[in-house]
UniProtKB/TrEMBL annotation, chain A:
GO terms for molecular function: hydrolase activity. Residues 2-166 form the Hydantoinase/oxoprolinase N-terminal domain. Pfam families: Hydant_A_N, Hydantoinase_A. Residues 187-354 form the Hydantoinase A/oxoprolinase domain. InterPro entries: ATPase_NBD, Hydant_A_N, Hydantoinase_A, Oxoprolinase-like. It comes from the Bacteria. This is N-methylhydantoinase A/oxoprolinase/acetone carboxylase, beta subunit. SUPFAM superfamilies: Actin-like ATPase domain.
UniProtKB/TrEMBL annotation, chain B:
Residues 330-366 are annotated as: Disordered. Transmembrane segments: none annotated. Pfam families: S-Me-THD_C, S-Me-THD_N. Residues 9-162 form the S-Me-THD N-terminal domain. Residues 330-350 have a biased composition (Gly residues). This is DUF917 domain-containing protein. It comes from Nonomuraea pusilla. Residues 228-318 form the S-Me-THD-like C-terminal domain.
């Protein structure tokens, strides 16, 4: 048995999955300020302690960034001079967040050209002076980026060694090559965000562990990452940024699992928004370009999700419009069916007989037909925007607000699976482990691809995948047409089932 | 007019539209311009008619791959090295900067570099939009020599190219690009003040600002129903029932409805994401995107027979399209560039579209 937990802003959901893959139990409990007691309560309610692993998905870290709270000031060290001076680190950040996060900015020598040849030599004295400045300012977290580090991370690693030797083990170092892909500013931003979250990650991961101990569970703990794969606790402490989009990823993967589909659209309808994503081969389609997170341009590997302002708590206007304003978590006091005075989307669903929530007599006579039709049309339009071809596409509805929908115009196959309300916790429980390669190769196409695939598989195995279960799920080639010498940027992703024995060993 | 950090977003948006779906990552150029304006103060925009006849005007831009530019972000000293070498070659001080290419990221970089040099920016450019070829300029049409031309990087590693035509300039730039790491700053078709009014696309900077502040009415608004070499836009809302095809290479090249061209290169064709209001580049096109398709006229000189030979539909491999009459009433010529036509070394510049999503601005066809 394994347990999946989703720690959201409002609720902590947990699901117990049997060895045969069936959902044995599911609970929802309120998220608490200390995180620990909310998880402990959910685990108690599940009542199972003899489990082989616990997987947690959380929005805790992304929320910290959105709120600009609980963040550590960061020293941003970039290696690449004299290139890149036109745009120093943090240049494109929103002012409020920048004030919170900017501890110091250092532009240094180092970095590489696209082909791996050095831009300039790393300057040891320069980096020692940077270390002295970091120490003088009392900064405890450092983000290191260098030009084309996805091609060669040599500069970043050597700079990290120098800084670590000067600053000691109490200062965290985050390296951009381990966090993002080609695109310096976006990768560097993600690295700075990661650095700002490191102390919070230490505390939070410790709180998760404490919750397990309190519930009497002695099983390995994993956190789910943006791409639907798992990382162990140690990795999570060092790369909190990798959890940023795990919420939508888990709900989409959970939806796939519960419905038995691997290629479909998923609509997760919560209290305020409907989030639409596309699953392909069981994994969420990732956003192609740069993703804005809390106003910061990043290139996290995050699912391509379209959110529209329709949820169970959406306020219904006098003209029959629904959303984007929502009563949010006050649904249980403000909705008509709960004795409140606000007409919400949930009231419409109850009036239409699609849900049995609260007191249906309070919504008798409410005109539900037209507003619910508009809701269905807008959700259908969002799904249509996300699809990549005109081929028929099944749609899976999950989340508490999914009772708003029974049919979607233009889509024949619309389903709401059992346990739809805890799809995200189920998604956390079934996560796999993966390995990814994204860099510029040169040479003949077949050789390049074989090399990249082998490297991705190797990385998945190292991450804890079971031998024989690893498969390539994504290959992307971008010929760098204007660079001679057959240079090709190749992205390959491999995933496999988690081998618990390997983890224990 | 002065460009400061307040006016920059509108200007940058105008540059993005004038990229016609290409022209490289405007986000990088815009951020560099913002930083330079903060560091060095606003940039004075001067009218071509106000220039001293003997003033040396330095057109500037970058050439290379977008992927490299988004990683190996430029330095601050490229314009200084360009200027120093141009002054040495021409024996006179550079008095003003001009964008070689207003469309895309190069329009924004011209602002950044003018700010860095403390020089005014001429309200003109070489293209009135973005083109993939370095020689697809009004200066080329008017017989201005492209050389001596200078390529350099942020630390002043410099290549001077002399005694070649526009087409050969591209060949030399391409040959040097690898050594420069896939990205290089360039200045070519250097002008004197008295040449600017007759040998460039006039009013480009003010036009970009105006465009950024107010976009023209779209040709059609709808969703992308087919992506690939050509893009099918299915009309929605008031345009329900219309089907419009947009031909694309490195840039958007033509808009065709009911078999007839509605807009075509050399005029600018831009796609706008109706959800985000962001300009959509050719490599960002994908099924389901809600877009508005718009067109903006290029400089009328591109609709003359010589202009069309250098940058008309045929130069981009659109042989089935005869040139459209310009919105200004100019009539087009035959528009045939002939084999190995203008702007192309190994084929039409439009072939660059086959190179995939990394194809972009002022790049040389492979």
């Amino acid at each position: 048995m394994r347990i999946g937990i989703d720690v959201g802003g409002t609720n902590t959901d947990a699901a117990l999955i049997g060895d045969g893959g069936q959902v044995l139990a599911a609970v929802k409990s309120p998220t608490t300020e200390d995180v620990t007691s909310g998880i402990a309560a959910a685990l108690d309610a599940l009542g199972a302690t003899d489990v082989s692993a616990v997987m947690i998905g959380t929005t805790h870290f992304v929320n910290a960034l959105v709120e600009a709270a609980r963040l550590e000031p960061v020293a941003a060290v970039r290696l690449g001079l004299p290139a890149t001076a036109a745009l120093p680190p943090l240049v494109d950040w929103p002012d409020r967040l920048r004030e919170t996060v900017e501890g110091a900015v250092h532009l240094c020598h180092g970095g590489h050209e696209y082909d791996g040849s050095p831009i300039s030599a790393l300057d040891v004295d320069e980096l020692r002076a940077v270390a002295a400045d970091i120490r003088r300012r009392g900064l405890r977290s450092v983000a290191i980026s260098s030009v084309f580090s996805p091609v060669s991370d040599d500069s970043e690693r050597r700079a990290a060694e120098i800084l670590a030797a000067e600053l000691g083990p109490d200062v965290h170092l985050s390296l951009s090559a381990e966090i993002g892909r080609v695109g310096l500013l976006a990768r560097e931003n993600a690295t700075i965000v990661n650095a700002a979250l490191r102390p919070l990650a230490d505390r939070t991961v410790a709180a998760f562990g404490e919750a397990l101990r309190r519930a009497g569970i002695d099983a390995p703990l994993f956190l789910s990452q943006n791409d639907g794969t798992l990382m162990d606790v140690d990795h999570a402490r060092r790369y909190p940024v990798a959890t940023f989009a795990s919420g939508p990823t888990n709900s989409m993967r959970g939806a796939a699992y519960l419905s038995g589909l691997t290629d479909c659209a998923v609509v997760d309808i919560g209290g305020t928004t409907s989030d639409v994503g596309i699953l392909s081969g069981g994994f969420p389609r990732e956003a192609a370009g740069e993703a804005m997170v809390a106003g910061v341009r990043t290139n996290f590997r995050i699912p391509d999700v379209l959110s529209i302002g329709i949820g169970g708590g959406s306020i219904v206007g006098p003209d029959g419009s629904v959303g984007p304003r929502s009563v949010g978590f006050r649904l249980s006091s403000e909705a008509l069916v709960f004795g409140g005075s606000t007409l919400t989307a949930t009231d419409l669903a109850v009036a239409a007989g699609r849900a049995e929530i609260g007191d249906p007599s309070r919504v008798a006579g409410v005109d539900h037909e037209r507003p619910l039709k508009v809701v269905a049309e807008r959700v259908a339009e969002a799904v249509d925007r996300m699809r990549t071809s005109a081929a028929p596409l099944p749609v899976v509805l999950v989340g508490g607000g999914s009772v708003l929908i029974d049919r979607l115009p233009g889509f024949d196959d619309v389903r709401r699976p059992d346990h739809f309300e805890v799809a995200n916790a189920v998604g956390a429980a079934i996560a796999q482990v993966g390995g990814e390669v994204d860099r510029v190769f040169s040479g003949p196409r077949e050789t390049v691809l074989a090399e990249a695939r082998a490297e991705a598989v190797e990385r998945a195995l190292r991450a804890g995948a079971r031998e024989g279960s690893v498969r390539i799920v994504d290959v992307e080639e971008l010929p760098l047409a204007y660079l001679p010498g057959d240079a090709t940027r190749v992205r390959v992703k491999a995933v496999g089932d988690l081998d618990l024995e390997k983890i224990d060993a | 007019m002065r460009i400061d950090t307040g006016l920059l977003p509108a200007f940058a948006r105008g540059c993005a539209v004038l990229g016609s779906g290409g022209g490289g990552p405007v986000a990088i150029g815009r951020a560099a311009a913002r930083q330079a304006l903060e560091d060095h103060g606003p940039v004075e925009v001067v009218s071509p008619t106000e220039l001293d006849p003997s003033l040396l005007v330095m057109p500037v831009g970058t050439a290379g791959s977008s992927a490299v530019m988004s990683e190996r972000v430029g330095g601050t000293e490229e314009p200084v090295h360009l200027r120093d070498k141009i002054e040495e070659l021409f024996g006179a001080p550079v008095g003003a900067v001009m964008a070689s290419e207003i469309g895309g990221t190069n329009g924004c970089l011209a602002v950044a570099w003018a700010a860095r040099l403390g020089l005014p920016l001429v309200d003109a450019d070489g293209m009135s939009r973005a083109f993939p070829g370095m020689d697809q300029t009004v200066m080329q049409l008017r017989g201005v020599s492209p050389t001596p031309a200078v390529m350099c990087d942020e630390r002043g590693r410099t290549v001077v190219i002399d005694h070649v035509t526009g087409r050969w300039l591209e060949r030399f730039v391409r040959a040097s690009l690898e050594a420069f790491g896939g990205q290089v700053a360039t200045s070519e078709y250097v002008l004197r003040g008295h040449q600017v009014a007759s040998c460039t696309a006039l009013g480009s900077v003010t036009r970009a600002v105006r465009l950024g502040e107010r976009l023209p009415e779209p040709i059609v608004t709808g969703k992308i129903a087919e992506a690939g070499g050509s893009v099918l836009v299915e009309g929605l809302g008031p345009d329900e029932g219309r089907l419009v095809r947009v031909e694309a290479g490195s840039e958007f090249l033509a808009v065709i409805e009911d078999g007839a061209p509605v807009a075509a290169v050399p005029d600018v064709i831009a796609l706008l994401d109706t959800r985000t209001r962001e300009v959509v580049q050719t490599e960002q096109v994908r099924y389901g995107l809600r877009v508005a398709v718009l067109t903006v006229p290029c400089d009328p000189v591109w609709h003359t027979p010589e202009g069309l030979r250098l940058a008309g539909p045929a130069a981009f491999g659109l042989t089935g399209l005869t040139a459209l009459a310009a919105p200004g009433g100019l009539t087009g010529g035959s528009g045939t560039g002939g084999p190995g036509g203008p702007g192309g070394l190994g084929g039409p510049a439009g072939a660059a579209g086959a190179a995939g999503p990394l194809a972009d601005r002022r790049e040389v066809a492979p």
